[in-house]
Amino acid sequence: MADIPINPLVVIGVGSSFAFSGLFYHLYQEKKKELEKLKEIPVFKPDHHLLRVLRATPHKRLQYVAVEGLVQADGEPLASQFVPRCFGVIQKISVEEHWKYWNSLTKTWNSRTMNRKETNNSVPFSLVSPGYMSDLYVKIQNPLEASGCYLDRVYYHVRCAEESLVNVVLQGLNGEKPEAMEETEELLRVGTTLTGFGEVVLEGGQVMRLQAPQDGRKYILEPTDYRSFMDRHERSASWWKTLTAVTGITGASLLARIIYGLVGNRDDRSK
For burial by CB atoms within 10 Å, which of 63, 122, 179, 200 has the most? Predict the structure, then answer.
């Protein structure tokens, strides 16, 4: 009795499953190390406790900490250009045009984006403790240098181009036609819960300031509280761990199926 050939797709499935399992395990280990480093970072609020710690430290400086508080403009906040009674401290407005041009080779209209304009505005702001009035705050220095998706989109509008007889004639001559104009406004709004990661220094015995670390670590602003920030990273680690287990079990099951088929085939030949 001839040997039953092994399905090459099953072999590929085994190899792919173990390969993905190894990749996911590596990503899980990297995320786990990142989590361990995050858990070592001291967490503060803009309150008297942080002020006492700064006064007790050499050089009145904490090299890398997390500070959680509410966004408050130091002066007049920025008003949204599109949304009434919406105020922020960092504003980004982008406008871009979408055009279509005639491709003579494929005989089709293709899209492209052009004339993109972006305006960034900011005003000085600080983090304050929620829940009670206090004269203590942590000023945020150079927030535009920080990483993190801390802007909230408050306005988005696509304005379609109107076609007229004159435009149609011009399109036939130059092979281009406007399609739409896209407008977007993003704000870091006043009252947003923000967690900043960086270096905190004490100036003049009373003014606390969060700034980019001098040791090269990342200066980060996250529009969430510290616990939610950590929960998101823990869910990410759990997701990579689950994918590692699922792909590993799948590969082991397929391999067991191959071995079972080979053993069964050998028993049949011995009979």
Answer: 200
Of residues 229, 123, 102, 68, the one with CA closest to residue 174: 102
Q: Interior CA angle at 100 toward 97 and 102, to 5°?
A: 155
Q: Is 176 exposed, middle or buried (0-12, 13-18, 19+ CB in 10 A)?
A: middle
Token pair for 51? 């002020």
Residues 90/144, Cβ–Cβ less than 8 Å: yes
Structure confidence at residue 5 (pLDDT): 60
Q: What are 196-207's pLDDT values in tens digits?
A: 999 999 988 889
Looking at residue 100, what is its pLDDT? 78
DSSP state, 147? B
- CB 78 within 8 Å of CB 87: yes
Is it the case that residue 171 has pLDDT exceeding 60? no
Which residue has 């000085």 as its token pair?
A: 124
* Distance (Å, whole) CA 266 – CA 3: 8
* 145-142-36-238 Cα dihedral, nearest 10 degrees: -60
H or E element, residue 120: strand 108-122
Closest residue by Cα to residue 124 from 100, 141, 148: 141
Angle in degrees, 0-180, between the axes of helices 226-270 and 8-39, rounded to the nearest 10: 150
- Structure tokens belonging to residue 52: 């006492």
Angle at 60 between CA 149 and CA 47, to 5 degrees: 60
Rg (CA), the chain: 29
Span 114-159, pLDDT tens digits: 767 889 999 999 999 887 666 889 999 999 999 988 999 999 998 8
